[in-house]
Specification:
The structure holds 2 protein chains of 2 kinds.
Chain A lengths: L4 E3 L2 E4 L5 E6 L6 E7 L6 E7 L2 E4 L8 E4 L6 E5 L8 E8 L8 E2 L3 E5 L1
Parallel strand pairs in A: 2-11
Antiparallel strand pairs in A: 1-3, 3-8, 4-5, 4-9, 5-6, 7-8, 9-10, 9-11
Chain B lengths: L3 E4 L2 E5 L4 E7 L6 E7 L6 E7 L4 E4 L2 E6 L4 E6 L8 E7 L9 E2 L3 E6 L1
Parallel strand pairs in B: 2-11
Antiparallel strand pairs in B: 1-3, 3-8, 4-5, 4-9, 6-7, 7-8, 9-10, 9-11
The chains are: A mainly beta, B mainly beta.
Chain lengths: 114, 113
């Protein structure tokens, strides 16, 4: 596609609800990353995929957060039993080659937990 | 892990003047330093990047300098224009690429007409 696409753009969840956020990377991009951006802060790394392999999940804040990329293209970030502190913009980025090329960001999903 | 400090948090300059944003990093193994511009409600967009084998890089009105010894890098914008108003983030990576970036907290650049 023309760019990294994320859906939904906005999500309001009641505390305790499960949510799933989708990322469509640029076609052919090997690397995919998820970041969390709190209001007024810089993006913070959550997890990284190379094709379907999740190579780094050190940034996931708790075991309520789970990410997958089963076929090496579309990725889903799932948050179980959402809490208010999960409210943030979740950004997805992809790059063509691991460690060699620019990462392109999606517009993000703004999650508000009420 | 890596820690990136960025300052100032807010910078207001007159249109036409220059703006400088500075960042420091903690891990000497970091070797890739991109700068992103993020307008309100929009995605971060790469404006310039530098790798550790280079001390300076320039692209029209934008330049980045890197001092590996001191572990700091800076963004310079000359002849600022109203459309330069945005939040700018510096970042550092240890792998020589774009995965696992550690971002600074951002600088809100305001261009006064």
């Amino acid at each position: 596609g023309a760019g990294v696409s994320q859906s939904p753009r906005y999500k309001v969840a009641k505390r305790g609800q499960d949510v799933a956020l989708r990322c469509d990377p640029i076609s052919g991009h090997v690397s995919l990353f998820w970041y969390q951006q709190a209001l007024g802060q810089g993006p913070e790394f959550l997890t990284y995929f190379q094709n379907e392999a999740q190579l780094d999940k050190s940034g996931l804040p708790s075991d309520r957060f789970f990410a997958e990329r089963p076929e090496g293209s579309v990725s889903t970030l799932k948050i179980q039993r959402t809490q208010q502190e999960d409210s943030a913009v979740y950004l997805c980025a992809s790059s063509l080659l691991q460690g060699r090329t620019e990462a392109f960001f999606g517009q993000g999903t703004r999650l508000t937990v009420v | 892990g890596e820690n990136v400090e960025q300052h100032p948090s807010t910078l207001s300059v007159q249109e036409g003047d220059s703006a400088v944003i500075k960042c420091t990093y903690s891990d000497s193994a970091s070797n890739y330093f991109p700068w992103y511009k993020q307008e309100l409600g929009k995605r971060p967009q790469l404006i310039i990047d530098i790798r550790s084998n280079v001390g300076e890089k320039k692209d029209q009105r934008i330049a980045v300098t890197l001092n590996k010894t001191a572990k700091h890098f800076s963004l310079h914008i000359t002849e600022t224009q109203p459309e330069d108003s945005a939040v700018y983030f510096c970042a550092a990576s240890m792998t020589g690429g774009a995965d696992g970036l550690t971002f600074g907290k951002g600088t809100h650049l305001i261009i006064q007409p």
